[in-house]
Amino acid sequence: MASTPTAPDAPAVIPRDGGASERVAEALRTAILHGEYPPGTRIRQEDVAAQHGASRLPVREALRLLEAEGLVRLVANTGAWVSSLNLDECDELYRIRERIEPLLLTYSIPALSDDAIAELGALAARMEAGVAVEEFLELDHRFHLATYSGARTLTLGETVERLWNRTQHYRRLYSLGLDADSNRIVHDEHHMLVRAIESRDADDAERVLAGHIRRTRLELARHPHIFD
Amino acid sequence: MASTPTAPDAPAVIPRDGGASERVAEALRTAILHGEYPPGTRIRQEDVAAQHGASRLPVREALRLLEAEGLVRLVANTGAWVSSLNLDECDELYRIRERIEPLLLTYSIPALSDDAIAELGALAARMEAGVAVEEFLELDHRFHLATYSGARTLTLGETVERLWNRTQHYRRLYSLGLDADSNRIVHDEHHMLVRAIESRDADDAERVLAGHIRRTRLELARHPHIFD
DNA sequence: GGTCTTGAGATTGGATGCAATCGCCCGTAC
DNA sequence: GTACGGGCGATTGCATCCAATCTCAAGACC
Predict the structure, then answer these.
(1) How far apart are CA B121 and CA B218, in angstroms?
(2) H or E segment at A80?
(3) Rounded mean pLDDT of chain B?
């Protein structure tokens, strides 16, 4: 993942695009979300600093940022660990999502272009065709983000994104235990959602989405071994 | 103000309770919430550092924290300003609250002690007795927090608190334009909420609370001059 | 043999100094 | 008179260094 930009004469890995803190935070975030740092992993500032060719200072700020996002837990004078969730905590996050994602969808629907809606159907179809777990997660994320892409919100979109990120690890574990048939309902729900969006029926779309999230929450609760 | 660090082992002015970053963040947060730093105010790192007898480093981390909370806006290489909201953004935050605060209430109600519920009635009565604006805001905040005090959540309580904080300034401006009569509905809603909680009827309490927040949002929209 | 204490090592937290960047003002050309 | 460009001051961003704190393990005492 560590992209080495083709620097002409500078051996430094630092492309100096934006702030170093943001770059380190972004790198850590994607690493955590891709499962390279599983929950409970300790994160040492010095290691990350050396890994990114920066000092510990931007790393500390990045860790603060990730802590605010809920991806990392900081203990004063002790260290940082990748956040882990138990079933109850994951359940809570899903209940929050169940309430606010429909709202985000309502923000989005009036502003979605016809092209964007067409893209939704394509994404749903690709997932239905049967893909590997990691790609399924990726497509599922992109699908739902696409349904929200019309929303121009100050906070809501970001809040939803953070909730997704915090449960990403357990969604992966759950998906690993599924066969193709188990996803039948998911695909049906996705198509129902696309149809509701196509007809610009925000209320119906809210209902379908809330049910989708709610069902996923109940499914997760039926597999508590994931949280050991 | 400026503590002279020349003494090696002299008694530091700093009580050294927790991390300096948290202390600075807490101080800035309360200052912003109390209206000492109105929206749009520029925050210079050096000033804050000197003001708290610390270096700029903890100040930077505090600003990062407050940015994540939405109270401060940071622009790279430029500076930090106290966040300001327009009507649409404030409306969005209220719509989010309308969806998730009822959920938090449902988490709380089963675990509320009878003493805590009695305290609710007392707070509602004190507000009704007629108090100055700043005290009204304080009591209102304490009242609603008390209704949530039974909830043992990972994220939801903190999220709600942040949403309150971000709209605090505009709630104050709105309250300043009210006479005693205009608060009649507010008091009625508070008492309805207390009664629903007393009977441990979470569904009814959710309905009352959602209506309370929704009505407040509509009231704010009727006073757009607040956001100039 | 078990438990408390104490020390060294490791790791984080904070302060200072320097480099990079941005905004502003003034001078100049058109 | 106005618009553009260069330089200067101010402020932020990052690296290095030092202090404070925690962890962990070995040893002494009960």
Answers:
(1) 26
(2) strand A79-82
(3) 90
In the numeric block, which tokens belong to residue B166?
A: 């971000």
Range A20-82 has CATH code 3.30.420.40: no
In this complex, do A96 and B19 lie within 8 Å of one another by their Cβ atoms?
no
Q: Give the tens place of pLDDT for each residue, B89-135.
A: 999 999 999 999 999 999 999 999 999 999 999 999 999 987 888 89
Retrieve residue B200's tokens.
């441990």
Identify the residue with better confidence: A110 or A132: A110
Q: At what angle do helices B156-176 and B20-33 cross, to 10 degrees?
A: 30
B84 and chain A in contact, CB less than 8 A: no
Domain B87-227 sits in CATH at 1.20.120.530
Do the domains at A20-82 and A87-227 have one common CATH topology?
no
Interface test with B, best of A92, A166, A227 (most B CBs within 10 A): A92
Residue ranges covered by each domain of chain A: 20-82, 87-227
- Six-digit token string for B215: 């009505």
Q: Give pLDDT tens digits for A33-46.
A: 999 999 999 999 99
